[in-house]
Amino acid sequence: MKEFRNMAFPYVIWIAVMIVAPMLLILLYAFTTAGNDVTTFHFTLENFTRFFSDMVFLEVLRRSLFIAIITTVICIVLGYPIAYIIANSQIKHQVRLILMITIPTWINMLVRTYAWMGILQDNGLVNQILGFFGIGHVTLLYTDFAVILGMVYNFIPFMILQIHASLTKMDKSYLEAASDLGADKVQSFLKITLPLSLPGVISGITLVFLPAVSSFFIPKLLGGGQYVLIGNVIESQFLTSGDWNFGSAISVIMAIIIMFSMYLTKKVDKDESAKGGDTV
Amino acid sequence: MKQKRIFSKLVLLLTGLFFYLPILYIIVFSFNDGRSLTKFEGFSLRWYDKMFSDSSMMEALGYTILIACIATVVSTIVGTLTAIGLSRSRKIMRSLVMQINDLPVLNPEIVTAIGLLMFFSSLGISKGLGTLILAHIMFCIPYVILSVTPKLRSLDPNLADAALDLGATPFQALMQVIVPQITPGILSGALIAFTMSFDDFIISYFVTGNGISNISIIVYTMSKRINPSINALSTVVILLITIALILINIIPIIQEKKKGRNAK
Amino acid sequence: MKKLIQFKRIVKEFDGKLVLKGIDLDIYENEFVTLLGPSGCGKTTLLRILGGFLTPTEGQVLFDGQDISKIPPYKREVNTVFQKYALFPHMNVYNNIAFGLKIKKEPKDIIEQKVMRMLKLVNLEEYADRAVTEMSGGQQQRVAIARALVNEPSVLLLDEPLGALDLKLRKEMQRELKKIQQEVGITFIYVTHDQEEALTMSDKIVVMKEGEIQQIGSPTDIYNEPVNEYVANFIGESNIIDGIMLKDYQVMFEDKKFDCVDFGFAPNERVDVVIRPEDLDIVPKEQGKLKGIIKSVLFKGVHYEMMVETKVGTSITVKMRVSEDRPVFNEAANEKISANDFYLDVEDVAELDEATIVARADAQAWNPDTDEFISIKEIEYTIKQENGTYPVTFRTAAGTAVTVNMIVKDENRVVNKEYQEEIFAVNFFKKADEIHESIALETDLKTWANASAWSLEDGSPVEITSIHYDFDPETVTTGVYEVTFATEGYEYKVDTTDFHPEGAEVGLTFTPEDIHIMSKEQ
User: Fold this and answer.
1) Does C72 contact chain B (CB < 8 Å)?
2) Domains of chain C: which residue ranges?
3) Bridge partners (DSSP) listed for residue B134
4) N or C, which end of chain A is more exposed by having fewer CB within 10 Å?
5) Beta strands C315-323 and C505-509: pairing type?
6) What ipTM goes with this model?
7) Following DSSP, what letter does each residue of C155-186 receive, concatenated?
8) Do A138 and B52 touch, CB atoms closer than 8 A?
9) Which residues of chain B does C75 touch, with a Cβ-Cβ cutoff of 8 Å?
């Protein structure tokens, strides 16, 4: 049926212009020096050597990865049990519980992050509660803790939803078969449920790690003006210092790191599933 | 068994509290009489008053709604037509387009943002409302396509042929047979597009210019100082999105009822 | 009668694959034509070309003498009943049927009249307001037919319309479709892979295979005079035997000469001989033209379906040496271990691995008190690709070990030139206990003897269908026993109403008219 085929053509042109061209532009800028015009390009690796030879930038990169990994780990550790509990509750409750997790994600992320500023302030809600229990003032805002909290808060719904989806997709008869074959509850969780829900965890990791490593307004709001992650460096290159070539190079580095970590998680996933067939 | 259930309930309660505490916090403090973000000094509407008289805030609200509406309408139409077209295309074409289509969804938003920023600049397009709308359409269409495609896939491939066979022109077949079948997918695509556009910060922040801001940009630039009008503005935003969500959840129910009545 | 549709050298290519290889076909007015063939034979493609949903790569479709290849579907005077019906789920029965008329903007009252008439034709008067999604498969089927017929097409195309229905409903709808076709008096073109459907309903059957037409004819023609083995097989169960046409009216198969009514073949031409199962009669052994043993009997309701084997397949006999079980007992570790010698084919040495050795030697270790198995951790062996005896030692983690021999011998296989088959098996050693304990002895015997058979033409595996031994597996003791493995021989399917027990020796008889001779396919 060719009747409707042509309807996709305008979008093919659109993506070539609006998606592919900007991506190519980033690559072009990353590998050239400043002050190009349309006819002459000076290709260079200088932008990359500058990043990797500067301890300040390397420290920012290290911290960004650290924060993103911690965030991802916390999201798995907290998100899995929540998803598991939801997946094991009654169907009519499940719909409501999933809605409970989804609704906040529809609300402006910036607004919700901003709200945490008030809660975490020195005389904010958390400290008031702590004070009530006789625990003195704890500085929460503008710390690693605040940044990680903000990231977990914003990104954990994605983890829960992915794991929940993979848990409910699972055929319950596998568990019946496992218990029929003599596995107890812990064994069937470890041997059946966990490996089969791994794909959900993997896509959850993707959905958490990726925005966490590139985030720039969460560190700005909850980490304070001095708190710099890789996203903030890119932001300042484009909006303050105006060094687009260097900024592009940093985003290329970030993209490569993300792709590499995605590749690693996928590989671990595959190895794990391959191992699943092993004897006890 | 009972202990386990209590434990589950407790976990879910804490989860709910964690998710909704900041939202409630904002709403409560938007009615605070004082400036403080930490101490509630009595009920008042003064920050709403202040918000409504703040021209930059009202302008941002207006732009946000305008951009979201345009982006939603355009991306829903283009996305739906594209998805239908792709479902009838050759496999190579389809998978190529779908992969590029996934890029804005999978890429870090900041990468998409700087790409667009440099793209608009190198074409000499001056940043402002136009670039904002183009950018929003660009990142909304993929979500529409992604939510319409599964509905198309579960459709009987012969439905359109059946309509043509009975004498319908391709356009009639599209409007009278295909579109009614995938309406839920189109509606949820439109909803996602609307909220994506309405809530967007990063891409808007990079491609805007000419003093045009949306709500997220205003909140970001104002949050450096304590300004309780932000709470009022945020509450309005929460309210608008909640209304949109309720509408979307209610429309199918109303449609079902109508259908039920027709059947009788 | 008038030629209504003419396909002229229709070729259709999908991504470089030829789906239709030049189809020529004429269809007349008021005919019930069936396109019959397995999935992938191109029958649906041909139908979709006629419906206008596909354009042929080459060739012409003439409708009433005019080329319609370029006309879009919505301007063609044909209507289609689709596979799985393709009813519009968001419309009720009435609106589904009225769809085409509304598109044509016919007046409301006319539409109502026509729809009601159609509902009556398909016996659904009561269901006009029903949602199509709430109807049974059979009812949806009727709606689909009504929806197509209400547009008064001159041809109705039906694409496997009964495929989704259960057997009883299918039979009912077959009768009904034929009735409707006679009543409305238009051409029906019907696509199916079900030969029975084709035989009961059609005026004309077109048998297709891999994009080509094999035979066109009336159901009786096709059934009684299939042009080749493919058609004969497809159009119902047949016995097809290799034979040689000695001269006109005389054919030889199974080394015997038989009279027949066919002629016109070259002297000594190799042919396929077809005998329908219902044409074969079972008679006492002495009176049979062929003699054989009844291998199986299936009760089919009205008749019995029997398989009579007139000649065994390729067979091989090997020796099984049964010995007492004497496992090695390691008292210190409280472990027992046992294994047996085994034979190996020279050709298999190269592909030998530890898992195979364990399986062939049946090596196992266990705790004599609890009977729990203990895994074998170590296998020690050296082997060369030449005849000889090679020791192999199996050892557990606790050091309990047993040593047995691998005996490599030249090939031990039987070639059957007539069937172009080869069968292979080796002598083997076994413990009496293992035979007693086997829960699937025939499968185990095949494994132990490493028995396999394959075609010499293309090397594809041939199933070993018969395993013969003359010991009682329950009570077998030490000694040497013969085991025979065989492939399937010449078998005839016979449909008869008389019962004969399995294993009976019987004769088969038939008349010269029951034999049908076909040329070998190219």
Assistant:
1) yes
2) 3-232, 237-312+510-519, 315-487
3) none
4) C
5) unpaired
6) 0.87
7) EEEEESTTTTS-HHHHHHHHHHHHHHHHHHT-
8) no
9) 167
Residue A278 binned pLDDT confidence (cut-offs 50, 70, 90) = very low
For residue B164, the distance in angstroms to the closest alpha carbon of chain C comes to 5
CB-count exposure of residue B235 (10 Å: 0-12, 13-18, 19+): buried
Sheet holding C376-381, edge to edge: C376-381, C388-396, C401-409, C342-345, C428-431, C315-323, C479-487, C464-469
Residue with tokens 């190269």: C350
- The reply to whether residue A239 touches residue B134, judged by beta carbons under 8 angstroms, is no
User: Which among C82, C105, C152, C157 is the top mutation candidate for probing chain B, defined by the most B β-carbons within 10 Å of its own β-carbon?
Assistant: C82
Does position C155 have pLDDT exceeding 90, yes or no?
A: yes
DSSP state of C92: B
Instruction: Please indicate whether, in this complex, the C-beta atoms of C131 and B263 are within 8 angstroms of each other.
Output: yes
Nearest residue of chain B to residue A248 (CA atoms): B114
A-chain CB neighbours of B39 within 8 Å are 123
C315-487 has which fold? Immunoglobulin-like (2.60.40)
Tally of CB atoms within 10 A around C408: 20
State both tokens at C244.
């040689």
**What distances in angstroms separate CA B87 from CA B92, B151, C393, one per listed residue?**
12, 11, 62
Select the CATH number that applies to the domain covering C3-232 from these four: 3.40.50.300, 3.30.70.2190, 3.40.50.740, 3.20.20.30: 3.40.50.300
Lowest mean pLDDT among A182-186, B171-175, C79-83: A182-186
Sign of CA dihedral A178, A179, A182, A184: positive
Q: Chain B contacts of C103, Cβ < 8 Å?
A: 166-168, 172
What are the φ/ψ torsions at residue B172 (nearest 5 degrees)? -65, -40
Residue C307 has pLDDT above 80, yes or no: yes
**Calpha distance A85→A111 (Å, rounded):** 29
Q: In B88-214, where does DSSP find H-type helix?
A: 91-106, 109-122, 129-153, 159-165, 170-173, 179-199, 202-207
Q: Which amino acid is at A273?
A: S
Q: Over 90: is that where the pLDDT of C344 sits? A: no
Q: Which residues of C touch B159 (CB under 8 A)?
A: 86, 88
**Contacting partners of chain A (3+ CB pairs under 8 A):** B
Q: Is residue C120 left, alpha or beta, with left meaning phi > 0 and alpha meaning psi from -120 to 50? A: alpha
For chain C, give the percent of residues with pLDDT over 70.
Answer: 98
Question: CA nearest C53 in B: which residue?
Answer: B161
CA distance C210 to chain B (A): 23
Is residue C323 predicted with pLDDT exceeding 90?
A: no
Each residue's pLDDT tens digit, A41-74: 778 888 899 999 989 999 999 999 999 999 999 9
Residue C403 in tokens: 């040593």
Query: Given strand C58-63, what is the order of strands in its sheet?
Result: C17-28, C3-14, C58-63, C66-67
Write out the two tokens for C410.
Answer: 């030249």
Contact B161 C53 (CB under 8 A): yes
Tokens coding A229: 């992650």
Q: Any idea where the domains of chain A sit in the sequence?
A: 60-275
Cβ–Cβ below 8 Å for A8 and B85: yes
Cβ-based neighbours of B79, under 8 Å, separated by 6 or more: B140, B141, B142, B143, B144, B145, B148, B189, B193
Q: What is the DSSP letter of B174?
A: I
User: A205 to chain B, minimum CA–CA distance in Å?
Assistant: 13
Q: Which fold has domain A60-275?
A: MetI-like fold (1.10.3720)
Domains of chain B are 55-251 (1.10.3720.10)
Which of C73, C79, C86 is closest, CB to CB, to B159?
C86
